[in-house]
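Annex B, item 7. Sequence and structure tokens for protein A, then protein B.
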Amino acid sequence: MSPKPADTRPRVLVTGAAGRLGGLAVAHLRGSGRCEVAATDMRPVPGGTVADFTLPADRWAGLLEGVDAILHCAGHRGPDTCWEDAQRLNIDLSLRLMTAARGRVSRFVFLSSNWVMAGRRFGGERLTTELPPDPINPYGLSKLAIERAGVAFA
């Protein structure tokens, strides 16, 4: 009997897989069959791994082995996020993950938020990529900070 061929599909690590968007992403990616999905969250997730990216990278960096892309959905969500949670669960967590992935993972996709442009929500102007951001709360600012870190890391 010949050995089973190795899975040559790209491996995608999805953070925040127990959340709404992360869970939808995992279901879609797994359903497509085009990639191998490694689902992670701070809470248990079916077919996934519990990982706390707020901890030092040596506690979880092994999860990046063989990963081709990261879909980063983890973080504290919503406009009512306080500064402490925005810093710890959005900025610090994301920077820690980006730093560990740099040079090891070829793609890093970050789920941002329309709250980055929330100050423009009642204006009549068309939103474009040329407009400067206008976050109005800690959540929007934390998402903007990671967008900018992504630009710097790229």
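Protein B:
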Amino acid sequence: MGIVVQPADRRHFSRLRDIERRAFETLRAVGAVSGEAKTNSDAELQAYLHDGLLYAAFDESGEPVGYVGGFTAENCLHVDEMDVHPDHQRRGIGRQMMEAILREGGARKLVFATLTTDRFAPFNAPFYASLGFEIIEGQDLSERLRRMLELEAEKGLDPRRRVAMRARLDRLSKV
């Protein structure tokens, strides 16, 4: 049967946080993060769920092995978190989850998808670029994205590594 990507719900929150914690170590290994792993709270996961933008990748046993969560702002789908458990990485699961959430953004007639990510980790900015995202900087950054990058720096993420990206949803041919 393989991996199935579908909406997640509250009963999955604990497992989603575990996936996020474990994926943090993959980022640590490439220098993208340091310090203690932080995960989304129930309130943050509930906000994704409330917006209808919380998807999980489920294995054959029905267990989540990855998740993606987002919200809408400024006529954009903002992909706020995406993680795949290290035991399941490099199998196309992240791509499947991104395609699912991007399809939903397109179905909602949103104009752009945005996200912030590490510019150097090969499975971050280069991966998102393969889906049609482009780095945006300087005057192209909305105030919302500028503030998000500032908040990430305040949380200890290296601002030299962080970047905002955007894709026009109507131009994404892969979703």
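Comment on protein B: The beta strands are 4-7, 54-58, 64-73, 76-84, 112-118, 134-136, 162-168.
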